[in-house]
Amino acid sequence: MKRIFKIYMPLILLTVMTSCNQGRIEELENQVSELESQLSEKQNELDECENKLSEIQGYIGDLESAIGQLRSEVDDFSYEDWQYNVSDVEDATRNVESAFDDLQSTAY
User: Fold this and answer.
1) Domain-by-domain residue ranges, the chain?
2) pLDDT tens, 5-42?
3) pLDDT the model gives residue 44
4) Which pTM was predicted?
5) Residues above pLDDT 70, as percent of the chain
6) What is the 3-state secondary structure (H, E, C) of the chain?
7) 1 by DSSP, 3-state: which?
8) Residues whose CB is less than 8 angstroms from the CB of residue 72 and which lie 6 or more positions away in sequence, other chains included
9) Which letter, b or e, does each residue of 30-48 get, where b requires 16 or more Cβ atoms within 10 Å of its Cβ?
């Protein structure tokens, strides 16, 4: 009987330990799956932020260009007849306002 006990007891203990470890393994696999899902969500959020940042950078470029155009038109007052230059300045001002509005609407 002792001999049978010596043979079967390690097998029984191994089976019990395996079943206990299997539960822990399944728990860890579930945690890994959940973390992978969260990582995927965060990656999507990061992609959205990068796209938004790229869009904002484009609008900043548009605004810089519009400001440069406005400065140029204002400088024209020093050597052009102001009556011819007013409409150019008004157009350039509208372009600046439009570029700023685009930037502002994207940022908020």
Assistant:
1) 2-107
2) 667 667 676 776 676 677 777 888 899 899 999 999 99
3) 97
4) 0.61
5) 83
6) CHHHHHHHHHHHHHHHHHHHHHHHHHHHHHHHHHHHHHHHHHHHHHHHHHHHHHHHHHHHHHHHHHHHHHHHHHHHHHCCCHHHHHHHHHHHHHHHHHHHHHHHHHHC
7) coil
8) 92
9) eeeeeeeeeeeeeeeeeee
